[in-house]
Amino acid sequence: MSDLDIATLQRRLIDFAEAREWGPYHTPKNLAMALSVEASELAEIFQWLTPEESADVMSDPDKAFRVRDEVADVMAYLLQLAGACGVDVLQALAEKIERNEMRFPPGPAKPR
Amino acid sequence: MSDLDIATLQRRLIDFAEAREWGPYHTPKNLAMALSVEASELAEIFQWLTPEESADVMSDPDKAFRVRDEVADVMAYLLQLAGACGVDVLQALAEKIERNEMRFPPGPAKPR
Amino acid sequence: MSDLDIATLQRRLIDFAEAREWGPYHTPKNLAMALSVEASELAEIFQWLTPEESADVMSDPDKAFRVRDEVADVMAYLLQLAGACGVDVLQALAEKIERNEMRFPPGPAKPR
Amino acid sequence: MSDLDIATLQRRLIDFAEAREWGPYHTPKNLAMALSVEASELAEIFQWLTPEESADVMSDPDKAFRVRDEVADVMAYLLQLAGACGVDVLQALAEKIERNEMRFPPGPAKPR
To answer: What residue intervals traverse the membrane (chains A, B, C, D) (predicted)?
Structure first.
């Protein structure tokens, strides 16, 4: 894991958008829409792959580049949306894991 | 910003899935699909809101809870997918910001 | 195939929305967002299924109901969006098939 | 509305896929994933538009072409998925409208 930190990257994304005057476009609604579009572009890489091919996706350099690129796009919009809504992503995730630990007891189960 | 760190949360997600024996379900393809579904659930909160209402979404306690909850779900699947593919999310994002700084010169422009 | 026709159903959807005064909500942007959300709800039914289980999805009455229900929701928003944009869905599809017949020569190939 | 009919177009889509030997790729799961991806590509056209710009989307010839093209793609995958699951799209929609007429009494209300 790199020693980059999430707050610094979130700051760079804000500066990047401000330098291009994207404020009026970056409503929470539009950022949520863009996040969903990027998540679909990530899914698209996998849509015709068998489960086995999908497990091996990173052995294809072109697909590996696209996976990294789309993971970055999803993360970028997630951080921008969270910033616009005042949500601390890691805190929200920690709380969700705690709720899930109560909802789903350990042991074999189908995920939901 | 909380002092939680992303590697610790990623580890907790792995442990959580292992304790429930979700390994066979968590192919990169299925995780990408689940990520896209969660991103749409986040978008759904905003779908009938005006831009102004969307900017004010966190003033409604019920919607604010849903936003935090779905942001957490998107982050959870993004980290699990990235882990399954050996992608360092923050590194990928830093590289993408650098590519974007070359592609989009600063100054007013419509986002793409 | 039923003898229902698409124009009649499109008309019923318009009447339904008008009776509830949904006009201001039903911008093309919001309808496109709602369509995408419904398509994800349809995908969600399949997200943890193996290819084999997905081929057999309709043998489970609960899943079969959900598939029919979400197919209907996708169709409803597609017809409403197309109506709002003045697009004839069947005409657009016929033209797209013709373009695809030129782009993809017959013979074994991976879909894109 | 054109005098094309849905059953004929559904037949052409089947023939098209068979001629390219896409059967193994066209599981219900993969078709649902592809449908969701295409619905997001349609949403992407609208993501940075204001409500007013979205209402006027068809006055831009490039965007108008993309809207028609993506509407066709969504319809194509919806018909293929419905065919693979034995669902009659128009019948499913008619039944859903009837359920909605019972769930949502006429009169002003926010859509859900």
So the answer is: none
